[in-house]
Amino acid sequence: MKRRLLLLFPLLVFLGLGFFLYRGLTMDPSARDSALLAQQFPAFTLSTLKDPDARVDESLLLEQVTLVNVWAEWCPTCKEEMPQLLTLAERGVRLVGINYKDTRVKGREFLDEFGDPFEVNIFDPDGDLGFELGVYGVPETFLVDAEGIIRYKHTGYITPEDVERVVQEVGKWR
């Protein structure tokens, strides 16, 4: 009897591991809330994409509701997202970009080709600010209220269908 139970043990372990692996694979990581929701935007001091001598810090995000978009030239979905960001800017949404793990030349070329809806682009070539924000794939977008608190996070690109919802989110915090 003990011997039969001992033979079933590896099968039970295998089935248990299979269940947890299957469950993990079916979870949508983009559906997770950011750990930074309701937290202060991380402190930083970085240059802007256009001017290596111009330094900006987190105070840039104070006094106005701001949509902060993390993007990169090498990101194909960032190219798909740009028309929606241009629409948001046209509708009066303040946008600040974070050019993530890119070069200045490539980032500027991207904006020249696809348009520049951003009031300012923060240059984050090493991804340090992105790391502080918990970015695990671009594009990602954060809504920051006038006190510098992160109120909303959108993982993935903003689709045309998302534009109205994003505008409504911005309106809730104005």
UniProtKB/TrEMBL annotation:
<dbReference type="InterPro" id="IPR013766">
    <property type="entry name" value="Thioredoxin_domain"/>
</dbReference>
<dbReference type="InterPro" id="IPR050553">
    <property type="entry name" value="Thioredoxin_ResA/DsbE_sf"/>
</dbReference>
<dbReference type="InterPro" id="IPR013740">
    <property type="entry name" value="Redoxin"/>
</dbReference>
<comment type="similarity">
    <text>Belongs to the thioredoxin family. DsbE subfamily.</text>
</comment>
<protein>
    <submittedName>
        <fullName>DsbE family thiol:disulfide interchange protein</fullName>
    </submittedName>
</protein>
<dbReference type="InterPro" id="IPR004799">
    <property type="entry name" value="Periplasmic_diS_OxRdtase_DsbE"/>
</dbReference>
<keyword id="KW-1015">Disulfide bond</keyword>
<dbReference type="InterPro" id="IPR036249">
    <property type="entry name" value="Thioredoxin-like_sf"/>
</dbReference>
<feature type="domain" description="Thioredoxin">
    <location>
        <begin position="35"/>
        <end position="172"/>
    </location>
</feature>
<dbReference type="Pfam" id="PF08534">
    <property type="entry name" value="Redoxin"/>
</dbReference>
<keyword id="KW-0201">Cytochrome c-type biogenesis</keyword>
<keyword id="KW-0676">Redox-active center</keyword>
<dbReference type="InterPro" id="IPR017937">
    <property type="entry name" value="Thioredoxin_CS"/>
</dbReference>
